[in-house]
Design goal:
By secondary structure, the chain is an alpha/beta fold. The protein has 7 helices and 9 strands, in the order E-E-E-H-E-E-H-H-H-E-H-E-E-E-H-H. Helices cover 31% and strands 18% of the residues. The chain binds adenosine-5'-triphosphate. This is ABC transporter ATP-binding protein.
Length: 271
């Protein structure tokens, strides 16, 4: 997919929010879009998603299925979370079971009967994420995905990104706080002064580590993740050890992509 001389502004005589943007995303790539508040990251992502249209230039070769997770999930809709996700699955031509798999994986099971407007911000964000993933997107767009998410859900983001890219999908992620600057293998773009430029990747952390698997009570998972992070440990993932075993790439515990991610760890000889 590429931005081909893209110019965009929100009103006819307004300053350009983005000027002459030329940039390309290849299959399997993750792009982290960095920039200060108001720089134009969301605008760029919405142009990529096709939600906004450029006044000049074009976004070309966009994959047919796009999953867009806006910065704020629009929760003012008259559905419960479960009903909404099942409807979205049906609308996209999928079995409602596809929604159930994401409901389970994003730990939304206890919220399916809650109306969207009554969900907490973080839970609503997870519904937004599930909605985008049900479609099995070839392009996944995550606008500040860390905002409002609980600690467990945060650990799932890199895992989900790896699964999409492992199957040739592209991922665009905005990040104004530099939280995902360490997303492995990601390419960084910087948005500033209405232009988009390649940004150097932050230095990789020194690696002399081992992986320890621990099991904690489900109710204590959030607290455990927060405490481990506070102690300086990298939390690589959270998975359900009692749930059904998955059998396809976007399913809970997705075997192919998950193994591919684990393989990259093994190949570094750290286990
Ligand atoms: N719907 C809109 N109408 C008019 N101006 C807008 C609109 N949306 C965004 N803008 C303006 O466009 C500029 C870029 O906004 P954008 O949301 O793309 O920035 P951002 O880098 O994503 O910021 P943040 O990190 O705060 O989300 C800002 O000056 C913003 O005020």
């Amino acid at each position: 997919m590429r931005f081909d001389g893209v110019w965009f502004r929100y009103a006819r005589r307004a300053d350009w929010t983005l000027r002459a943007v030329d940039a390309a995303v290849e299959p399997g790539q993750t792009i982290v879009v960095l920039g200060r508040n108001g720089a134009g990251k969301s605008t760029l992502l919405q142009l990529a998603a096709g939600v906004l249209r450029p006044q000049r230039g074009a976004v070309r070769e966009r994959p047919p299925v796009v999953g867009w997770v806006p910065e704020r999930f629009p929760a003012d809709q008259p559905f419960t979370a479960g009903d909404y996700l099942h409807r979205m699955a049906a609308l996209r031509g999928h079995d409602p079971g596809q929604a159930d798999e994401w409901i389970e994986r994003l730990l939304l099971t206890g919220h399916t009967g809650t109306r969207l407007s009554d969900l907490s911000k973080g839970t609503a964000q997870k519904v937004g994420l599930a909605q985008a993933l049900i479609a099995r997107p070839g392009l996944l767009i995550l606008d500040e995905p860390w905002e409002g998410l609980d600690a467990v859900a945060r650990t799932l983001i890199p895992e989900i990104v790896a699964e999409v890219t492992a199957t040739g999908g592209m991922v665009l992620v905005s990040d104004h706080r530099g939280e995902i600057a360490q997303l492995p293998g990601a390419i960084h773009w910087s948005v500033a002064d209405a232009t988009v430029a390649a940004a150097p990747a932050p230095p990789a952390p020194a690696r002399d580590e081992v992986v320890i698997e621990i099991a904690v009570a489900r109710a204590a998972a959030d607290e455990a993740v927060v405490r481990l992070r506070a102690q300086g440990h990298a939390v690589l993932g959270v998975r359900d050890v009692t749930g059904p075993r998955p059998d396809a790439r976007y399913h809970p515990g997705a075997t192919n992509a998950r193994n591919a991610a684990a393989g990259s760890w093994n190949s570094e000889g750290e286990q």
